[in-house]
Specification:
The chain is mainly β and 187 residues long. It contains no helices and twelve strands. Strand 5 and strand 6 form a beta hairpin.
């Protein structure tokens, strides 16, 4: 992790209360980080992380995901049992920014919203993803809609649909730890 943070927080734990109350803010400037598996890198995040009681809010901010410009906002209801509600958007996001072996594929006008749970030893993600266009394995597509779930090295995309080559593809994909991808599709 790199960047600068300006911290102004008050932490209080009244008698008889199990968790402290946090009030204040952390100013983030040029923050960058890479996931431990090395697949996703964020950089140039500058925003205000505000705390009120047990909740935290990251104001909508510009950043880079794998070098691509994006916009991100997040909210956590309980920082002591963090589940992050988020929204991410980008005019053009290369799939290689978030997925290994994605080649030159790009999603255009992408919007993702969902929840990232950090309450267990391994993060769990659920997100709805939409893109107006782009490419998948080099094939042009439009109207992408997908529901992504990731937990304990098991990734599911169900449902998945997009338009391509004059038709609509609907299906699902699953990739389990130590296994290749499997799925089904209907045209």
């Amino acid at each position: 992790m790199k960047g600068h943070a300006d911290v102004a927080l008050d932490v209080a734990k009244p008698v008889g209360v199990t968790a402290p109350s946090i009030d204040g803010r952390i100013g983030l400037d040029g923050i960058g980080a890479r996931l431990s598996d090395g697949t996703v890198e964020i950089s140039q995040l500058s925003s205000i992380l505000s705390f009120k009681g047990k909740s935290a809010t990251l104001a909508s901010a510009d950043l880079r995901v794998g070098g691509a410009p994006a916009r991100f906002a997040a909210r956590v209801e309980d920082v002591f049992a963090p589940v992050v509600a988020f929204e991410l958007s980008s005019a053009a996001l290369p799939l290689a920014a978030v997925m290994a072996d994605a080649g030159d594929d790009v999603f255009r006008e992408i919007a993702a919203s969902g929840r990232l749970s950090l309450t267990k030893p391994t993060p769990e993600l659920e997100a709805d993803v939409r893109a107006t266009g782009g490419t998948i394995r080099g094939v042009a597509m439009t109207n992408l809609r997908a529901r992504v779930a990731h937990a304990a090295s098991d990734t599911r995309i169900d449902p998945l649909s997009f338009d391509s080559c004059g038709g609509n593809l609907r299906g699902s994909l699953r990739r389990a730890a130590g296994a290749g991808a499997s799925g089904s599709a209907r045209v």
